[in-house]
Amino acid sequence: MLDNRKKEILQAIVEEYIETAEPVSSKAICEKRGIDYSSATIRNDMAELEKIGLLDKPHTSSGRVPSAKGYRYYVDELLNYNDISIQEIKYIQGQLETKINQIEDLTKIATSTLSEITHYTSVGIGPKAESQDIEEIKFVLLGSRLLMAVILTENGLIKETIIKFDEDITAEQVDTLTYLFNNKLKGRPLAQIDKPMEEYMHSEMDNIIKVVKPVIEQITKVINEDVPVYMQGADKSFELPEFKSLDIAKNFVNILDTDKTKQMIEILNSSDNQDEINVYIGDENVDEALKDFSVITFKHKEKGKDLGTIAIIGPTRMDYSKVISAMKYISKKLDENNKLQEKDNKQLEEPKE
């Protein structure tokens, strides 16, 4: 446990290093951070902080830099969660007030907004399709052997797919499909469109099974397809001093490679059962490629349902205070928007006198 003076000195070193990317000396702390202790006292405490692993001393420099352990202590114990300006608050408000047609739009806008505020690379994925409850399934006959299925979830997620048949299908068969699928599945998770559904159809409608089977196969395929990954601000990261290292720059490019979206989805989903905001610093990341980086994930949920995940990826010398403050404010605004939307929906559903 650190005493208050050591906490103050550690916080000053972390924040000065985040700002300058240069090793921090006792003189810099006195002059720039306004800490009212003598240089000798600060140097002694810096040596103690180094001894317990919270600071590192690069090369022969007299200054210190935070270690991964030091960043972790800073995030857990010293962070300021209100580190966004009035202008940034207004910007977030303006962006999140944009008309949202689908839940994917919300993830894209929040991802872009977070990157603009923090100047780091942000990555987002929408909610897992199979966890969403079905609001309605529509079937549209596009030709004698071509059918379009449109699946709408209660949270605004839309899945579309085209099904081709070997035999002609009729409008009457499409009407029957619409009735059966909605009667069986409305209000249930998308994951229930599987083999048991086909077995149900077998027992209910033997004469329509040739139509039902390819529909189920195609709907299951589109539900289980890869989740789209949204990325913003990757170019900004290469302006940071850390990316002068060729190895770090190469690692970063590989992480964000569009051909490795499955890897990115795994990273963003790694905090499924944890807190709303999670911070992974250096070696705390499961993926070896992220050992030189910090990842902060933000999972947006409503009534326990997954509405998408956004992450900031940057060097361990990250402005944690700014990033987490922005995430918390975005989370607050999203919750407010959800409550307003629920209120509007209830008013629309109420019968008019």
Describe it.
The protein is 48% helix and 18% strand. The chain has helices spanning 4-20, 26-33, 39-51, 68-78, 86-96, 103-118, 171-185, 195-204, 209-223, 234-237, 246-255, 261-268, 320-349, and strands at residues 55-56, 65-66, 121-125, 134-143, 146-153, 158-164, 229-232, 277-281, 293-302, 305-315. With 353 residues, it is an alpha+beta fold. Strand 4 (134-143) and strand 5 form a beta hairpin. The model has no long low-confidence stretch (mean pLDDT 78). The strands form 3 sheets. A 5-stranded antiparallel beta sheet has the order 7-3-10-9-8. Strands 4-5-6 form a 3-stranded antiparallel beta sheet. It contains 13 helices and 10 strands.
Helical content class: 40-55%
The CA-CA distance between the termini, in Å, is 65 Å
Largest sheet: 5 strands, antiparallel
% residues in beta strands: 15-25%
Q: What would the principal axes of the Cα set say about the shape?
A: elongated
- Report the strand count: 10
Structural class: alpha+beta
Sequence of strands across the biggest β-sheet: 7-3-10-9-8
Count the DSSP helices.
13
Calculate Rg over CA atoms. 26 Å
**Helix/strand order, N-terminal first:** HHHEEHHHEEEEHHHEHHHEEEH
Note the main attributes of this structure:
single chain; 353 residues; alpha+beta; 5-stranded antiparallel beta sheet; 13 helices; 48% helix; elongated
Draw up the topology in text:
Blueprint: H1 4-20, H2 26-33, H3 39-51, E1 55-56, E2 65-66, H4 68-78, H5 86-96, H6 103-118, E3 121-125, E4 134-143, E5 146-153, E6 158-164, H7 171-185, H8 195-204, H9 209-223, E7 229-232, H10 234-237, H11 246-255, H12 261-268, E8 277-281, E9 293-302, E10 305-315, H13 320-349
Antiparallel strand pairs: 1-2, 3-7, 3-10, 4-5, 5-6, 8-9, 9-10
Helix pairs in contact: 1-2, 1-3, 1-4, 2-3, 5-6, 5-13, 6-13, 8-9
